[in-house]
Amino acid sequence: MSDANSEQCGEEPSIISGSLTLGLLLSVVTSVILIKSGRVGWSWGFSVGAGISLISLYSLSTLVPRLTMPAASGASQFLLALVLFLKLPLYTIALYAVTRMPGVDARSAFPGILVAPIAITAKAVGAGVWHSIAEAAYRRRIRRGGSVIMQRRQGRAAWRRRPQLTEPASEQS
Q1: How far apart are CA 92 and CA 77, in angstroms?
Q2: Rounded distance, CA 89 to CA 32, Å?
Q3: Of 47, 89, 93, 165, which is least surrounded by CB within 10 A?
Protein backbone atom coordinates (compact mmCIF):
# COMPACT_ATOMS: atom_id res chain seq x y z
CA MET A 1 0.00 0.00 0.00
CA SER A 2 1.07 3.54 -0.46
CA ASP A 3 1.83 5.58 2.62
CA ALA A 4 -1.23 7.83 2.23
CA ASN A 5 -3.61 4.92 1.78
CA SER A 6 -2.12 2.93 4.64
CA GLU A 7 -2.54 5.86 7.00
CA GLN A 8 -6.21 5.95 6.03
CA CYS A 9 -6.59 2.28 6.95
CA GLY A 10 -4.75 2.78 10.25
CA GLU A 11 -1.84 0.52 9.35
CA GLU A 12 1.84 1.16 9.76
CA PRO A 13 3.01 2.87 6.54
CA SER A 14 6.12 0.74 6.14
CA ILE A 15 4.62 -2.77 6.46
CA ILE A 16 4.52 -3.45 2.71
CA SER A 17 7.81 -1.74 1.91
CA GLY A 18 9.42 -3.57 4.83
CA SER A 19 8.00 -6.87 3.59
CA LEU A 20 9.31 -6.21 0.09
CA THR A 21 12.75 -5.35 1.44
CA LEU A 22 12.80 -8.40 3.69
CA GLY A 23 11.60 -10.63 0.85
CA LEU A 24 14.25 -9.30 -1.52
CA LEU A 25 16.95 -9.77 1.10
CA LEU A 26 15.71 -13.28 1.88
CA SER A 27 15.67 -14.28 -1.79
CA VAL A 28 19.14 -12.86 -2.53
CA VAL A 29 20.71 -14.51 0.53
CA THR A 30 19.04 -17.84 -0.23
CA SER A 31 20.12 -17.71 -3.87
CA VAL A 32 23.71 -16.93 -2.90
CA ILE A 33 23.73 -19.79 -0.38
CA LEU A 34 22.36 -22.16 -3.03
CA ILE A 35 25.01 -21.05 -5.54
CA LYS A 36 27.80 -21.41 -2.97
CA SER A 37 26.61 -24.91 -2.10
CA GLY A 38 26.78 -25.92 -5.76
CA ARG A 39 23.05 -25.98 -6.50
CA VAL A 40 22.86 -23.49 -9.37
CA GLY A 41 19.71 -25.09 -10.82
CA TRP A 42 17.92 -24.72 -7.50
CA SER A 43 19.10 -21.12 -7.32
CA TRP A 44 17.58 -20.30 -10.72
CA GLY A 45 14.25 -21.90 -9.86
CA PHE A 46 14.14 -20.25 -6.46
CA SER A 47 14.99 -16.84 -7.97
CA VAL A 48 12.22 -17.10 -10.57
CA GLY A 49 9.69 -18.12 -7.92
CA ALA A 50 10.77 -15.32 -5.59
CA GLY A 51 10.62 -12.84 -8.48
CA ILE A 52 7.06 -13.87 -9.27
CA SER A 53 6.08 -13.58 -5.61
CA LEU A 54 7.69 -10.18 -5.04
CA ILE A 55 6.41 -8.71 -8.31
CA SER A 56 2.91 -9.82 -7.33
CA LEU A 57 3.22 -8.21 -3.91
CA TYR A 58 4.62 -5.01 -5.38
CA SER A 59 1.92 -4.74 -8.03
CA LEU A 60 -0.82 -5.31 -5.49
CA SER A 61 0.69 -2.78 -3.07
CA THR A 62 1.00 -0.03 -5.68
CA LEU A 63 -1.67 -0.59 -8.33
CA VAL A 64 -4.67 -1.48 -6.21
CA PRO A 65 -4.53 1.57 -3.90
CA ARG A 66 -3.87 3.95 -6.80
CA LEU A 67 -6.62 2.60 -9.03
CA THR A 68 -9.26 2.40 -6.30
CA MET A 69 -8.74 5.89 -4.88
CA PRO A 70 -11.90 8.04 -4.68
CA ALA A 71 -10.30 10.55 -7.08
CA ALA A 72 -9.65 7.85 -9.72
CA SER A 73 -11.63 7.88 -12.95
CA GLY A 74 -14.49 5.52 -13.74
CA ALA A 75 -12.25 3.44 -15.98
CA SER A 76 -10.02 2.56 -13.03
CA GLN A 77 -12.02 -0.57 -12.19
CA PHE A 78 -11.64 -1.82 -15.75
CA LEU A 79 -7.92 -0.99 -15.73
CA LEU A 80 -7.47 -2.77 -12.39
CA ALA A 81 -9.17 -5.89 -13.67
CA LEU A 82 -7.12 -5.79 -16.87
CA VAL A 83 -3.80 -5.41 -15.05
CA LEU A 84 -4.61 -8.14 -12.55
CA PHE A 85 -5.78 -10.43 -15.34
CA LEU A 86 -2.66 -9.81 -17.43
CA LYS A 87 -0.43 -10.86 -14.54
CA LEU A 88 -1.60 -14.44 -14.95
CA PRO A 89 -0.06 -14.96 -18.42
CA LEU A 90 3.20 -13.42 -17.18
CA TYR A 91 3.36 -15.89 -14.31
CA THR A 92 2.45 -18.75 -16.64
CA ILE A 93 5.24 -17.86 -19.06
CA ALA A 94 7.78 -17.59 -16.22
CA LEU A 95 6.81 -20.94 -14.72
CA TYR A 96 6.75 -22.58 -18.17
CA ALA A 97 10.27 -21.27 -18.82
CA VAL A 98 11.47 -22.68 -15.49
CA THR A 99 10.05 -26.11 -16.27
CA ARG A 100 11.53 -26.21 -19.79
CA MET A 101 15.02 -24.76 -19.19
CA PRO A 102 17.73 -27.41 -18.97
CA GLY A 103 19.67 -27.43 -15.72
CA VAL A 104 16.98 -25.58 -13.75
CA ASP A 105 15.13 -27.48 -11.07
CA ALA A 106 11.44 -26.53 -11.36
CA ARG A 107 10.64 -27.87 -7.88
CA SER A 108 12.64 -25.02 -6.33
CA ALA A 109 10.25 -22.41 -7.74
CA PHE A 110 7.66 -23.37 -5.12
CA PRO A 111 9.79 -22.28 -2.10
CA GLY A 112 10.60 -19.12 -4.05
CA ILE A 113 6.90 -18.35 -4.47
CA LEU A 114 6.55 -18.57 -0.68
CA VAL A 115 9.01 -15.69 -0.14
CA ALA A 116 6.37 -12.92 -0.04
CA PRO A 117 4.02 -14.69 2.42
CA ILE A 118 6.98 -15.55 4.65
CA ALA A 119 8.23 -11.94 4.56
CA ILE A 120 4.78 -10.53 5.35
CA THR A 121 4.33 -12.97 8.23
CA ALA A 122 7.79 -12.23 9.62
CA LYS A 123 7.17 -8.49 9.44
CA ALA A 124 3.79 -8.78 11.17
CA VAL A 125 5.07 -11.12 13.89
CA GLY A 126 8.10 -8.88 14.44
CA ALA A 127 5.87 -5.82 14.81
CA GLY A 128 3.69 -7.69 17.31
CA VAL A 129 6.71 -8.79 19.34
CA TRP A 130 8.14 -5.27 19.45
CA HIS A 131 4.75 -3.90 20.47
CA SER A 132 4.42 -6.43 23.30
CA ILE A 133 7.96 -5.66 24.49
CA ALA A 134 7.12 -1.95 24.62
CA GLU A 135 3.88 -2.68 26.50
CA ALA A 136 5.71 -4.86 29.03
CA ALA A 137 8.34 -2.17 29.60
CA TYR A 138 5.61 0.41 30.09
CA ARG A 139 3.75 -1.76 32.62
CA ARG A 140 6.98 -2.58 34.45
CA ARG A 141 7.80 1.09 34.87
CA ILE A 142 4.33 1.88 36.18
CA ARG A 143 4.50 -1.03 38.66
CA ARG A 144 7.73 0.36 40.08
CA GLY A 145 5.92 3.48 41.16
CA GLY A 146 7.52 5.96 38.83
CA SER A 147 5.39 8.09 36.62
CA VAL A 148 6.08 7.53 32.96
CA ILE A 149 6.08 10.33 30.43
CA MET A 150 5.49 9.41 26.81
CA GLN A 151 7.21 11.52 24.17
CA ARG A 152 6.99 11.25 20.41
CA ARG A 153 10.33 11.35 18.63
CA GLN A 154 10.45 10.79 14.88
CA GLY A 155 7.31 8.70 14.88
CA ARG A 156 8.38 6.33 17.65
CA ALA A 157 7.38 6.36 21.25
CA ALA A 158 10.27 6.97 23.59
CA TRP A 159 9.83 6.37 27.30
CA ARG A 160 11.70 8.16 30.02
CA ARG A 161 11.21 8.06 33.72
CA ARG A 162 10.31 11.22 35.57
CA PRO A 163 12.80 11.77 38.41
CA GLN A 164 11.44 11.05 41.87
CA LEU A 165 11.46 13.93 44.30
CA THR A 166 13.37 12.72 47.35
CA GLU A 167 15.05 14.51 50.19
CA PRO A 168 18.84 14.54 50.29
CA ALA A 169 20.43 11.95 52.60
CA SER A 170 21.67 14.67 54.99
CA GLU A 171 18.07 15.78 55.73
CA GLN A 172 16.71 12.30 56.38
CA SER A 173 16.70 11.09 59.99
Answers
A1: 24
A2: 28
A3: 165
Shortest CA distance to 100 belongs to which of 92, 110, 111, 112? 92
pLDDT tens-place string over residues 92-148? 898 888 888 888 888 888 999 999 899 888 888 888 888 888 888 777 776 665 555
Given a contact cutoff of 8 angstroms between Cβ atoms, the answer to whether 69 and 6 are in contact is no
What would the pLDDT profile of 93-105 be if each residue is shown by its tens digit? 988 888 888 888 8
Cβ–Cβ under 8 Å, residues 15 and 124? yes
Its pTM stands at: 0.64
Q: What residues form DSSP beta bridges with 148?
A: 161
State in Å, rounded, how far the first CA of the chain is from the last one: 63
